[in-house]
Amino acid sequence: MKLDFISLSVIQKALENIAEEMGIVLRRASFSANCKERLDFSCAIFNSEGELVAQAEHIPVHLGAMFSSMDTVLAQYNVNSFNPGDIIILNSPFSGGTHLPDISFILPVFIENKLTFFVTNRAHHSDIGGSTPGSMPGTSTEIYQEGLIIPPVKLYSKGVENEDILNLILSNVRVKEERLGDFRAQRAALIRGEDRLTELATDYDRDFLLNSVTQLMELSEHSFRSHLGNFPDKTLKFCDYLDSNGITENPVKIQVTMNKINDKVNVSFEGTDKQQIGNVNCPKSVVYSCVYYVFRVLTDPSIMTNAGLFRNIEIGIPVGSLLDPKFPAAVSSGNVETSQRIVDVLLGALAQSFSEIPAASQGTMNNISLGSTKGNTPFTYYETLGGGTGAGKFYKGTSAIHSHMTNTLNTPIEAFELIFPFRVKKYAIRKNSGGSGKNTGGDGIEKEIECLVDTTVSIQSERRTFSPYGIYGGQPGAKGANSVRKRNGEVINLPGRIITKLSSGDTLMIKTPGGGGYGKRK
Q1: Report field, pTM of the whole predicted structure over 0.70
Q2: How far is it, in rounded angstroms, from Cα 431 to Cα 420?
């Protein structure tokens, strides 16, 4: 039965609101500042075939990668092996994950005693073991240094918690109570999603819901194909570089080639550098996220984000390359830093035909992990810092904000200082760091954090060597910079990726990049 547009819109909003409500529950029930303050999590709904049905407006790098997680789970588990109350947990980047701190929960939803949907969420945990507090070692060379690897396993079976698996996980992390609290929050969010889908099925029977989902996917697919009519009949090519691989200072190339073939767009990363010794390697699932994100923002925002939107995108990634590394490659920075450069490369290619494409944004998440296991109160803290966004044809860049593959908030200074042994000495907009042009890029951030106890610090950051590019004659944004001011006043410059020890009284200083400018300044 063909449904009218109003009926489809009602179902669409109902599904999207369920995903959003899952996120509200996760935030309110969580223990960590990373989830409660920064909202570093994502929620989505899939059908029984593992196709995206609806998602909340959370973290782009999480959401696009969830496709791969569902593919892995459905390949490992027979559909008939799922029962109400089961929850699959996983974090392996080689099983559809992003990096090890991002832990996914997946719960099957049964309607009329039939598997109908999966509700899922992914949350960044501020520690999952590994060589450094925070599980984001700046100079890791293999995944084993980055934390505990969790393949898809049932953490809950028919609603009963597998205590052995839970104890195994908690025995490998630094702050057990916080991890357990966030796990409970993730489960609570899934149960809320299950309840809301069950309620929806009391108003609309199972067949009606499934028919609606099918038609919504077809509508999204049709809408995307209509947008492809604007895609140029020529090959678009662009490349950009990561500052380094984290171990050697050699820049790392990412190259993309795009063209339209009939009613599909082909995105090839042939020409990208090979797998690296450092942690900039990027799992395929993250590459998919980047491509889906870029094409999503280029389409009509009223189109529902579901599997249909991406059916006409073909992605080619060289095996064994930076963007499809072989196990046990280090990948912790691939999710947060390489992903940002992939977006810069994709937008740089599209800018050759679309004048509405903006200049490069800061191109990094400026990852900081702080922690200590000494003393009476061990702690781990993880934060990403905003910067400037690129200017566009009709607007200036935005200052001091997260952009592209991240969508988190900042941790308020009051909450940060209340929970952790640090003092924020400075938190300000980095004036004049945006690239000049007809429209100027947004400014970055300056943040100074004084340690009140001895602390292990791990930094993963980019755009410290190569500036965010300007476009159509606009100037590049200012590069970022990392440094430490010792308690005796000495200032030491730090590289983009590092693990270091700071003493009480030392101050970590981060300057984030500005966005590129758009157009020549008159």
Answers
A1: yes
A2: 28
